Amino acid sequence: MTTTVTMSLEELHQRVEGAYHKANEKGTLQNFLDGVVALCASVDKSVGVQAPAIIVQKAPEPQPTRYGLPVGFTFAQVEQRIARLEKEFPGLDSTHVMKLAETYAKILPPRESIYVGPKTQILCASGEKHPYNAASIIVVGKLALKRDINNFVEGRLSPKYLRPWDPSWKLWKKWEKETPGDYIVKPFQYGDLHLTKSANDTRKTVQNGEALMGVFHNTVTFLSDEEEAPRIDGEKATSYLINSLDEYAPHAGGDFWFSLSFDWGDGRLNLGSCNADDADPRYGSSSAFAS
Predict the structure, then answer these.
(1) Phi, psi for residue 224 in degrees, rounded to 5
(2) Among 215, 179, 216, 6, which Cα is nearest to 94's?
(3) 254 burial class (0-12, 13-18, 19+ CB within 10 angstroms)?
(4) Residue 34: which residues within 8 A CB-CB, separation 6 or more?
């Protein structure tokens, strides 16, 4: 039996808006869409005010993506990386980098590479309470000086908007303390070993000894690899690069259920955000890991 609800257009709008905000709080937008469909189906069309026609097409269940790095793609050599980073960050101690890189190279699985990047705390003022945020602002600013970039989160990388996912961030901090010199050196990959459908799915695949990479680490990679860095352009490479380490609140309301992401959808490098639960086949295999 179908129950008919009589309401004004204004009341319908208020109910839909309320359901949207409730769904936002819980991060369950699909429940919101289902609720809108049910609500509109129950409105009495015989009343004087005609309810708006709302058509919601339910997306098919996404499948794990097979997007990956393009055939023949290679990362820059470690020697090239450190030479470029020394120009960006003069005066940092990199004497340990090559020795560590050579050790890791002996155990690297195919199509992985070596991440080299300055320690977050080294780039910040002494005593900085949020080194990840402060260091991310620095490297994104440097990247903007080198590349044509649309920064849709400009001014919103402070702790109010951005925080690193705690399990991985604890491991990064441990590595920073244990690694000599001013640079972190770790094997990393952009999804060839981890095919997932969203940032939250990616977080579920993390194994012991692995840490997700965020906007800081991937921006450093773009700085150090220049033209070799992953170019995301339709079928030629991954379509999106999710910074799965990042928990982001675009409206700073305290709900950190977004992630930051890179893409080259319009031929320019774009830094924006995506829902951490979005299961988009363009995202999957581009989430970055270090181990």
Answers:
(1) -85, -25
(2) 179
(3) exposed
(4) 58
User: Above 90 in pLDDT, residue 237?
Assistant: no
- C-alpha dihedral (135, 137, 139, 140), degrees to nearest 10: 150
Distance CA 45, CA 243 (A): 46
Q: What distance in Å separates the CA atoms of residue 138 and residue 126, rounded to the nearest whole number?
A: 15
Residues in the chain: 291
In 76-130 the beta strands, taken as DSSP E runs, fall at 113-118
Q: Is 245 helix (H, G, I), strand (E, B) or coil?
A: strand
Which amino acid does the sequence have at 221?
Answer: T
Q: Where are the beta strands (DSSP E) in 157-220?
A: 162-164, 183-189, 211-212
**Residue 208 has which token pair?**
């012991």
Residue for token pair 């499948």:
63
Q: Say whether pLDDT at 81 is over 60.
A: yes
Whole-Å CA distances, 60 to 99, 242, 271, 280: 49, 22, 27, 11
Distance CA 92, CA 88 (A): 10
**Cα–Cα nearest to 73, from 190, 194, 180, 210:** 190
**Mean pLDDT across 136-150:** 92
Q: What is the mean pLDDT of the segment spanning 97-108?
A: 87
Q: Are 291 and 186 a contacting pair, CB within 8 Å?
A: yes
